[in-house]
Amino acid sequence: MSSTKFNIVIDEAFANFCEDSSLAPIDRKNLLSFCNDYEGGIWRAKAFHRFVWDNVAETALSEEEREALAGDHATALGRAASRMRLTKDETAETKGAGSELAEIFLYGIMRKHFGAIPAVPKIFYKQNVKDNAKGADSVHITVADGDFQIWYGEAKFYNSIENARLAGIIKSVANSLDPDKIRKENSIITGVCQLGKYISDPDMLEELKHLLDEDTTTDRLKPKLHIPIFILHECDIVAGKNDFDDALRDELIEHHKERANAFFKKQIEQLQNITKYDQISFTLILFPVPKKEEILDAYISRVKEEKEH
């Protein structure tokens, strides 16, 4: 069980299960997948949504707002909900809500599973700039074992994880690795995050600031760059079960490894010519759910309710 309180299905380096011996480079690539539990034979939807709403305020409010509203949970949720990107058009609303929910979920995984420090509350940022449709879906910094990594993530909510869907997210990853996009995200971190509050080692802090500086080539950053690719996805396997047991775990492991092989093969083919691609780390994070539509309906309903408070 992860500190996210969801079951870890698999957490393994891609090199350990790569099916194509000619594929390269395969290092610095990982697969991590989670599965929600069941109770009374039913997938625990309440636990899923509780995790989302436990992380809404952190990703939709600025640090100053969170500190000012400490202890006033209801007000914080209401203000966070006011930043949600729902629209009156039903099609656009559902599409926007899916991406937004996935972004919030990835934020929670980064904080709870990877121990990331609060760097940029991305939904807050997207709602407070004109160019809010571009850039990474998630921005984080992790510090461990005397070193740091900078994470610029992609987050999607798909009906499936078949090849057509994987191709779309690989294109998004490619766009995020454009030097101008990386430099833009770097400027966001240095502009809104008080790095010194979270990094006490002065040498590490100085190195981080140097790598984020606009005058530093983005090539220097790439050995520290980690791209989490998070995909919430509808899955018949979890929909057809009533318990998280060894049989379900084994079925998901087989399915997710097969999809990871397809993803990383296509990613390597399309991105390997990016400068220093072999020095960038990637983690594919999969989270299967039984019914995407039901989850989005519940999320949209809760956002609307909070907006009205």
Describe the SSE topology.
Layout: E1 7-13, E2 29-35, E3 38-39, E4 42-43, H1 45-60, H2 63-68, H3 73-81, H4 90-112, H5 122-126, E5 138-144, E6 147-158, H6 163-176, H7 179-192, H8 202-212, E7 225-234, H9 236-239, H10 246-271, E8 281-289, H11 292-308
Parallel strand pairs: 2-8, 6-7, 7-8
Antiparallel strand pairs: 1-2, 3-4, 5-6
Helix pairs in contact: 1-3, 1-4, 3-11, 4-11, 6-10
Task: Write a structural description.
It is a single chain. It is built from 11 helices and 8 strands. The longest helix is centred in the last third of the chain and has 26 residues, at 246-271. By secondary structure, it is an alpha/beta fold. The chain has one domain (7-308). Helix 4 (90-112) packs across helix 11 (292-308). Residues 87-94 and 128-133 have low confidence and may be disordered. It has helices at residues 45-60, 63-68, 73-81, 90-112, 122-126, 163-176, 179-192, 202-212, 236-239, 246-271, 292-308, and strands spanning 7-13, 29-35, 38-39, 42-43, 138-144, 147-158, 225-234, 281-289. The strands form 2 sheets. Strands 1-2-8-7-6-5 form a 6-stranded mixed β-sheet. It has a two-stranded antiparallel ribbon with strand order 3-4. Strand 3 and strand 4 form a beta hairpin. It is globular, with a radius of gyration of 19 Å.
